[in-house]
Structures are given as structure tokens and as C-alpha cells.
Design a protein that fits this description.
Length: 309
């Protein structure tokens, strides 16, 4: 909650000054500014200091495919003079694997929609959903009387639920019991709870290794064989999933299939840890859900040359 609050009220900067005194222009979310400079007057309702109102949801949770919508109106009738609305969500993402190419494990989407408009407003200065960061902020200019809907969506979760904290500040008015006035004293103890321990293996890598590897990804085959005959199923080098493990469907048509050996294409010489998992049905829509997989082989392979084929 603290991280979301500080980022939500962070202040934009006019420029970045170099050692020689020159000032370069900057913009929110660039490599110089990021979310901006900490400003507590913009972050919290402070009695006697501002007329900000805040909508706060601390340590809430959302499920895979679940959407939560908060509706609010811009109301400046009490003299509130804040010209923007700022909404920030933050969550503790489970640890990813080393060498990951797409490291987000539990992806939550934050999106804002203005009443009477079908156009969505996305976070972090992007024109679409953020698939990289586990903190997202939307800040826009608003006018008195405008209505908005803020959506929190559990886009792609490896676990069944994900905890998060959300704060919305500005001249906001809502019928929901989430609007908080300035408090006189701090809470008795921190309200944020530590994330649960990562789930036991399998993690988000149905097939993983010490170093990233490219395991053959089988292509559809029209191979027809007699029972008990020895056949090699050749594959291409198109498998580039790496950190998520390489998955494929194997379908027996006329005869049973017995797998007696797997040859791997490994990127380095030496020992590699290999974990193999299986599941009934297709891997589609299960590639990032470890509970769907069953481990049946953990071993170590040794590459005596650069390529094992």
C-alpha cells in the first residue's frame, strides 16, 4: 500500500539537469523521471493542507479472469481544486525464473473509462495494457461532474488469486464505502501482509533448466508405423519459449506410443538439470498453471559437445 501511495502522488519534473548545467526535457515514465518525485501533498488527504479525497483498497485480492469495477464522479462542490485524478495499483508478483524473457507471473490490468466514452485509458503512459510492470498508474486531467469507471482485471494469473493494493485520489465522490477522510493517528500495525511462500514445484516452468535451453518443439507429423517399431520423431529448432518450458501435445492415433528417449538441443557444454511434466489433454491454456501438471522425471543431462542431437 505504501508503494502504491507514494507512486500515485509522485510529482512530474520540468527537466533533467546534466553535470554541465544543461537541462534536457523529460516526460512522465521516461528513463529520467519514471513515476516522478515524491510529494506527500499529492499523495494523501492531509487535514488543513489539501482537500483531496482518496479511495483506498488495501490488501484486496482478485481471481484469474475476475474483474472489479469502481465507479466515481468528479465533485468539486466543497472547494476541491485538484485538476487531476490519479489511480495506482501495486502487487507483489511471485518470483520468476532466471533468464526469463517475459518475467511477469501474475498480470493484473488497470484501466479507466470515462462515462459516455468507449475509449479506454491505460496505465504508465501506454496506449495498451502494461504486461511488464507490477505497479501501474493512470493520471488524467478531469472536470467537475465527469463520471468514470476504474477496472481491475486479473488478466493472467499463475495462482488462483493475487493480492493487491489500490489507491485513487482527486476530487472524487463515490457511493462505495471506500472513500477515506484524513486520519488523526496511524493504524496500530501495518495492514500489508507478506506474500505467501511460492508454491512448490512445478513452478511456472513445466520444463526448466539451470541455464536457458531450447528444447525441440515437435511439429505435426503424418508418420505411420507398425506396432513396436523404433521411430525417431524429428523436430525443428523453433522452440523459443525457454523460461516457461517447452510444451507440446502428443496424440496416439492407431497405436500406443512408448517414449524411450528424449534428445535435447542444449546451448552449452556441461550439466543441465531437466524436469519433465505431463498432463491429460492439451497444454493450451495450461502453460502457466502449475497445478495442472504432474512431475514424472527429474534428471541431469550432460552435454559432451555444444549440441546434443
Amino acid at each position: 500500500m505504501l508503494k502504491a501511495t507514494i507512486v500515485n502522488g509522485a510529482q512530474s519534473l520540468l527537466g533533467a539537469q546534466a553535470k554541465d548545467g544543461t537541462v534536457s526535457p523529460v516526460s512522465d515514465y521516461d528513463i529520467n523521471v519514471g513515476f516522478g518525485r515524491v510529494n506527500l501533498l499529492n499523495s494523501l488527504p492531509l487535514a488543513g493542507q489539501n482537500k483531496m479525497r482518496a479511495l483506498i483498497s488495501n490488501d484486496d485480492s482478485i481471481g484469474r479472469g475476475e474483474e472489479k469495477v469502481i465507479s466515481f464522479t468528479i465533485d468539486k462542490s466543497d472547494g476541491c481544486d485538484i485538476s487531476t485524478v490519479s489511480a495506482t495499483i501495486a502487487w507483489m508478483d511471485p518470483p520468476s525464473s532466471s533468464g526469463c524473457m517475459k518475467c511477469m507471473i501474475n498480470d493484473i490490468d488497470l484501466m479507466l473509462t470515462k462515462g459516455g466514452s468507449s475509449q479506454s485509458i491505460y496505465p504508465n503512459g501506454k496506449g495498451n495494457a502494461d504486461r511488464v510492470n507490477n505497479i501501474e498508474r493512470i493520471r488524467i486531467d478531469v472536470n467537475d461532474g465527469e463520471e468514470y469507471k476504474l477496472s481491475v482485471y486479473g488478466k493472467d494469473l499463475i495462482s488462483s488469486t493475487q493480492s493487491y493494493s489500490l489507491i485513487v485520489t482527486g476530487c472524487i465522490s463515490t457511493d462505495q464505502n471506500q472513500s477515506h477522510a484524513p486520519v488523526k493517528s496511524p493504524t496500530e500495525h501495518p495492514t500489508f501482509q507478506p506474500i505467501q511462500k511460492p508454491s512448490p514445484k512445478p513452478d511456472n516452468n513445466p520444463i526448466s533448466s539451470i541455464n536457458p535451453t531450447a528444447i525441440f518443439t515437435p511439429q505435426p507429423s503424418s508418420l505411420k508405423t507398425e506396432p513396436n517399431s523404433n521411430i525417431y520423431l524429428s523436430t525443428s529448432f523453433d522452440g523459443k519459449i525457454k523460461s516457461y518450458g517447452n510444451m507440446f501435445d502428443l496424440v496416439a492415433k492407431d497405436n500406443d506410443i512408448s517414449i524411450v528417449m528424449l534428445d535435447l538441443h542444449i546451448e552449452d557444454v556441461g550439466y543441465e538439470s531437466v524436469e519433465i511434466y505431463e498432463k491429460d489433454g492439451s497444454y493450451v491454456n495450461a502453460s502457466r498453471h502449475p497445478a495442472a501438471w504432474v512431475s514424472f522425471q527429474n534428471t541431469v543431462a550432460y552435454a559432451i559437445t555444444m549440441y546434443i542431437i
